[in-house]
Design brief:
Number of domains of chain A: 1
Largest sheet of chain A: none
Distance between the termini of chain A: 43 Å
Structural class of chain A: mainly alpha
Radius of gyration of chain A: 17 Å
Low-confidence stretches of chain A: none
Structural class of chain B: mainly alpha
Mean pLDDT of chain B: 94
Oligomer: heterodimer
Strand content of chain A: under 5%
CATH architecture of chain B: Up-down Bundle
CATH class of chain B: Mainly Alpha
Number of strands of chain B: 2
Shape of chain A: globular
CATH architecture of chain A: Up-down Bundle
CATH superfamily of chain A: Fumarate reductase/succinate dehydrogenase, transmembrane subunit
Number of helices of chain B: 4
Distance between the termini of chain B: 41 Å
Low-confidence stretches of chain B: none
Strand content of chain B: under 5%
Radius of gyration of chain B: 18 Å
Shape of chain B: elongated
Mean pLDDT of chain A: 91
Number of domains of chain B: 1
Helix content of chain A: over 70%
CATH topology of chain B: 3 helical TM bundles of succinate and fumarate reductases
CATH topology of chain A: 3 helical TM bundles of succinate and fumarate reductases
Number of strands of chain A: 0
């Protein structure tokens, strides 16, 4: 398999994995953080869910990283390819470059912020 | 095409949440929580939940269409994959709430 085709297959494979993550984990995160907490609904009526999740140092940090990184990759990758399908094909290279830049910076930033919040993540439980 | 556009909400929510995490990491938790209480952000999050759920359900249906499972002489239908994955989604969502929020 040529190198570019292999890279293409890997990128679509990661996109597909991000799709699973976005499908199974993102709805509950949006509900907890973006709806239940500000509107005072179950189960986040009295506590901020991000703090509750991050209090479970290893599992919580890992869940937030996987959910945010996977969803960001899936969302940007799909949105960027949709833009090329609706008439921006000429700007395909530029869109891909911007898309991957956002994905890389976003994933690195997520990891850095989570480790800043939970510096003992790599220590044993 | 609607399905493709829902990925916009998946991406934007992720970016907003990364910003939230940056505020948490820098110790500005109160600012992060105030941002979540902004009516515009709540409205966006309601839309994001609707579109993300639509994105998830159509993804489950597509899985059943692309990769049907053969069991003896019968082959699974896309709606069966949709149903099984909805049940899985509910179990996973409840597990996240029970293990990471309520405990």
């Amino acid at each position: 398999m040529p190198q570019i085709a292999r890279l293409h297959a890997i990128l679509w494979g990661v996109f597909s994995m991000g799709g699973f993550i976005a499908a199974f984990l993102l709805p509950v995160l949006i509900y907890l953080v973006g709806i239940a907490y500000p509107l005072g609904l179950w189960p986040a009526a009295n506590q901020d869910p991000t703090t509750s999740i991050l209090d479970h140092r290893h599992l919580g940090t890992l869940l937030l990283f996987v959910t945010v990184a996977g969803s960001l990759y899936h969302g940007i990758f799909r949105f960027q390819s949709t833009l090329t399908e609706i008439g921006l094909a000429r700007a395909k290279r530029a869109l891909e470059a911007i898309g991957y830049l956002i994905i890389i910076i976003g994933i690195l930033a997520t990891a850095i912020y989570l480790l800043q919040y939970n510096p003992g993540f790599f220590s044993l439980p | 095409m609607i399905r493709e556009w829902t990925s916009f909400f998946v991406a934007v929510f992720s970016l907003i949440y990364i910003y939230e995490l940056s505020l948490f990491a820098s110790g500005a938790k109160a600012d992060a929580l105030n941002l979540l209480r902004n009516p515009g952000v709540i409205a966006f999050n309601v839309l994001a939940l609707l579109f993300t759920s639509y994105h998830a359900l159509t993804w489950f249906y597509l899985i059943g269409k692309i990769q049907p499972i053969k069991l003896g002489k019968t082959t699974s239908k896309p709606w069966q994959a949709l149903l099984v994955n909805i049940v899985l989604l509910l179990i996973i969502s409840y597990a996240v709430i029970e293990i990471l929020v309520l405990r």
